[in-house]
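Translate structure to sequence.
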């Protein structure tokens, strides 16, 4: 997968964007160029143009995708072009008269999640919408390419696939019907059996559990999950009933409790069919306790679970 560098900033000039309804993410290299030695890569002019020995020629373009919630995702992706198009683009790039009329046609050179390789190689045409920006891919030359550019896509389903920090909160699918809100500004990865979200001053990890005993209630399974957990004062724990009959519980500790430099927040949400999600948050600032509680309450099971027979 290509390296992506998201930022609430313009893909072309790097200036901060005032409107978070536009999210910019940049692919570092065309997929076919990943792993090639640096000496095989040449930039005939600006960094947005690339020739890779034995691989091909590429022009960086902007791929605009419409997301639900009046949000636009703009991907700084690569278009594979022929040598003549690369030469023509290089000649027009710094020509104020020629650049606004530049047209580039080629094939999408990055697999984009969640469509993955389905969109790799799609033929598209890029045109200049703003002389200060890269060419925008505005025309698709196959039904799939037309849909990619024209349809409105589920915002969370698309954005949760990008691991690097985003300027907006995104609901992330954990599997088995569970989901959680990934906070703005946190990077994401899956490691050690858990979805992990991390930033400079806070982190969260979520793992799923399934009870191996069909005769236990949600409360009994919660008690089993909490077995061995540290004892904390009553004011540092909370238990709540879920609307479907499940239960959730959280407890938290401060550096004074642990001798560590960070606050800790541990929690579970248990459904009536023995499915559970466990959350662990760590944060530097005591005020971020509210954030940890918000993440805990964002744990949700989308599919109602049938009650287990006893």
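Result:
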């Amino acid at each position: 997968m290509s390296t992506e560098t998201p930022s609430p900033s313009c893909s072309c000039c790097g200036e901060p964007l005032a409107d978070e309804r536009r999210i910019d993410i940049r692919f570092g290299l065309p997929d076919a160029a990943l792993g090639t030695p640096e000496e095989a890569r040449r930039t005939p002019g600006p960094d947005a143009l690339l020739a890779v020995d034995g691989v091909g020629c590429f022009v960086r373009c902007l791929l605009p995708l419409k997301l639900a919630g009046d949000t636009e995702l703009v991907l700084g992706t690569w278009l594979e072009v022929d040598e003549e198009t690369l030469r023509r683009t290089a000649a027009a790039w710094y020509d104020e008269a020629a650049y606004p009329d530049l047209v580039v046609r080629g094939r999408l050179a990055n697999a984009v999640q969640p469509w993955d390789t389905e969109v790799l190689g799609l033929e598209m045409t890029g045109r200049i919408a703003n002389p200060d920006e890269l060419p925008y891919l505005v025309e698709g030359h196959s039904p799939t390419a037309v849909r990619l550019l024209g349809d409105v896509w589920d915002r969370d389903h698309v954005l949760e696939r990008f691991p690097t920090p985003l300027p907006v909160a995104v609901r992330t699918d954990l599997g088995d019907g569970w989901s959680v809100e990934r906070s703005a500004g946190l990077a994401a990865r899956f490691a050690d059996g858990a979805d992990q979200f991390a930033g400079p001053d806070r982190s969260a990890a979520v793992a799923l559990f399934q009870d191996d005993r069909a005769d236990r209630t949600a409360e009994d399974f919660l008690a089993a999950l909490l077995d061995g957990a540290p004892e904390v004062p009553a004011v540092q724990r909370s238990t709540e009933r879920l609307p479907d009959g499940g239960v959730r519980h959280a407890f938290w500790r401060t550096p004074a409790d642990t001798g560590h430099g960070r606050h800790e927040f541990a929690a579970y949400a248990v459904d009536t069919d023995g499915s559970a999600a466990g959350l662990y948050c760590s944060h530097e600032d005591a005020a971020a306790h509210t954030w940890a509680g918000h993440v805990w309450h964002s744990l949700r099971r989308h599919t109602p679970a049938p009650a287990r027979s006893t």
